Amino acid sequence: MTEHPVTPPSTPRVAAFFDLDKTIIATSSAYAFGREFMNNGLITHTEALQLSLAKASYMLAGHSSEHMDAARDQLAAMVAGWSVQEVHDIAVETMHTVVTPAVYAEARELIAAHREAGHAVVIISASASVLVRPIAEALGIEHVVATELAEEDGRFTGEILHYRKGPAKAEALAEMARALGVDPGASFAYSDSATDIPMLERVGHPVAVNPDRRLKKYAAEQGWEVRTFKDPVPLFSAPSAREVGIGSAVVAGLAALVLAGVWVAQARAKDTKDA
Asked: Which of 8, 55, 222, 241 minimizes the number of CB atoms within 10 Å of its CB?
């Protein structure tokens, strides 16, 4: 039997690190399953309304660091006592109706291009791993780093073990790069949020995707590439009476959406004026 020596690659190994929400998918993975959790009796109609409004606010205006921390604490408290297996099963069973239609075609093509180039593909997300991993599996992405929730006797305790936001994402990228044997300086990172600037700064090829105002400005200052993903367009529907309960709650929700829309319009007008 003839042995064929393995020749080391002439170029360093490369990875593509992707944020998930509003970068790969045109929605929030943390909020996407709200109706399914309600239908399975894990949350009340009122809690479902709160998730719908939080999702609406996120889709319209994004999340600041403070908003992300508040959402983290709210969701961690909400899932305390839930069965880990049940949450996983709900996520898997409803994947193709809740998340798959929201995957950006541009992101899917970009992931495929990185694979064809021999690059490792990694999702790094602040959302809980129990929700992120089924999405990654549906996309054929093997490597995932996400927020980890504490478990005891098969149930979530409400404690957060590792929160992958801001500098923690950058550290996770560095750790994953070492584990995969890739060169961050030759690698790519994609995100929509200014909270991920520390992660984007860790790679040689940072890309702002559908960037929020702060990231758009920072990317322009740094000369980073900016991409727009819009197929599908990240739309959301206002919660219906059947989804969230009685009409008065829906009226309150719609009022909040209108106010959020006014806020975004004012912010855009200010941006235009400043420009």
From this structure: 8
